[in-house]
Structures
1.
Amino acid sequence: MFNTQLYTGSKEKDYPLVISQLQALLDGETNRIANLSNASALLNQYLDEVNWVGFYLLEKDELVLGPFQGLPACVRIPLGRGVCGTAAQNQKTELVPDVHLFPGHIACDAASQSEIVVPIMKDGQLLGVLDIDSPIKNRFNEQDQLYLEQFVEMLVRFL
């Protein structure tokens, strides 16, 4: 259904293509778990130099592991703890060039060196976060942040 050969290596061209692929992939489907599963698989297929792509979903006052691609992960993360808990609590994207310098970083995978976490907001309410880890320091930049926030905005339409 999706041709990865269409990717050019240019974030300005490729991220919009991935976002349109997400829309086509989720169109007509209302199951939240299915949509989050396909979204994580799509990002994992597109992004290079990543070792974990997935979601943590808000349940009461903590984040609980949702659909993901990668090694087994931490199951529960309190709000305000680690990169994911901080992004969720502040409802703001966390772009972390070196996770070892982030206060309170939770090391679910020792190979992870950098991370980006995007809060998932719908109608002013936090649903969870998109979490992406890389074994490379400084893997993510402001362009990734911009486009991943757009990816999450598209995803929210199907949650």
2.
Amino acid sequence: MRYLHTMIRVGDLDRSINFYTDVLGFSLVSRNDYPEGEFTLAFLRAPGDADGGPMLELTYNWGVASYDLGKGYGHIALQVESMDAFAGQLAAHGQRFSWGPGKAPNGRTVIAFIVDPDGYQIELIEQH
């Protein structure tokens, strides 16, 4: 078994692609329209992940601008080399942490959270 991808639904595909590529440094691997189903799929790979590694699938259902995220979804987690450096990267794009940085419950790891344009939580975990 191999982990392939995680899919999230987005209300504005271009806005989401720009957030994940410009702010977080992901690369766009593919983007395909499916007119018969009225949706578009975009696959992105996080910086540092090898070809063939897991991806983030952004699904845009044509004409749907937003979703109720509900109470079951948690977050996406990404490792960053330096929380301070990443804070500068966020600021350069007019973004900020929604929580933190602060210590994780284990008391050793520095974590923070940001929110993507559709309201999905992204946990940032500082490499140690």
